[in-house]
Specification:
Blueprint (H helix, E strand, L loop, with lengths): L1 H11 L12 H13 L5 E4 L16 E4 L7 E4 L2 H18 L6 E7 L4 H14 L4 E7 L17 E5 L2 H13 L8 E4 L16 E4 L1 H14 L5 E2 L2 E4 L8
Parallel strand pairs: 1-2, 2-3, 3-9, 4-5, 4-6, 6-7
Antiparallel strand pairs: 8-10
Length: 244
């Protein structure tokens, strides 16, 4: 996403400033205030679960959100409903067709991230396979290795993850717990990062058009176009969701 934004900025000969908040809402608000004080063309916010509810942003006419659809703001958002429905449906259908001994479905997410995606995943899974046990597990910080020590993978479970990074961490947990991905445990991510297809086994995930969204966000600010746009997705059905 940042690569796409930088490409658009370089083409238009504008300067970009970055601030990493670590999903800290107070830090995010402070950064927006500082950028606004610099008379910037605008601020692009990768939305957290608190961002779009922040009333302060509604007083600004140069804020654009990425990753969340809100009627109060200009948003470049992803088709989460269609993507999650397709990912869950294809994964479960494939495992059933291969007669995998599937007994339960789990969803692991970072509690700092968008709560709407978690609710959507829960509803989709329970609607798709109501006969299977389902559980949610929140990580306080998915970037901290220590948080994964609380994750106890179970045989014959499929684990949907909010991001590919979380899924990749579970690969290590599976090895530590002597479980074989693609045989007696299945792991699915979201995001399709550059290295997701290089894992062994390769990671089943869903790809969003991150680069294009970052590029488009900068171009929209420059053009003063604050209309919302929905992104695209592509399923990447790979080895981690197959039964062998």
């Amino acid at each position: 996403m940042i690569k796409g934004a930088l490409a658009a900025a370089n083409e238009s000969q504008v300067r970009m400033l970055f601030h990493s908040t670590g999903f800290n809402h107070e830090s995010e608000c402070q950064a927006v205030r500082e950028f606004n004080g610099l008379n910037a063309l605008g601020t692009i916010i990768i939305a957290s679960k608190h961002s779009v509810e922040e009333t302060f942003y509604r007083t600004l006419d140069n804020v654009l959100f990425i990753g969340k659809n809100s009627p109060h703001h200009c948003c470049l958002y992803y088709p989460d409903h269609a993507a999650i429905k397709a990912l869950v449906s294809q994964t479960i259908t494939q495992l059933k067709q291969q007669q995998a001994p599937l007994v339960a479905v789990n969803y692991i997410y970072d509690e700092r991230m968008l709560s709407s995606r978690t609710k959507l995943m829960q509803a989709t899974i329970t609607d798709t396979v109501p006969e299977l046990n389902f559980s949610l597990q929140a990580l306080a910080n998915s970037e901290e290795k220590a948080d994964y020590q609380t994750v106890q993978l179970q045989p014959n479970h499929v684990y949907f993850c909010a991001t590919d990074n979380i899924a990749i961490r579970l690969y290590r947990r599976a090895k530590e717990q002597q479980l074989k991905i693609g045989h007696n445990v299945w792991i699915v991510g979201m995001g399709d990062y550059d290295y997701s297809d290089l894992l062994v086994p390769s990671l089943t995930t869903v790809a969003f058009n991150y680069y294009q969204v970052g590029y488009q966000a900068v171009k929209k600010l420059i053009k003063r176009d604050f209309s919302s746009v929905e992104g695209t997705f592509e399923l990447k059905m790979r080895e981690s969701s197959r039964f062998s």
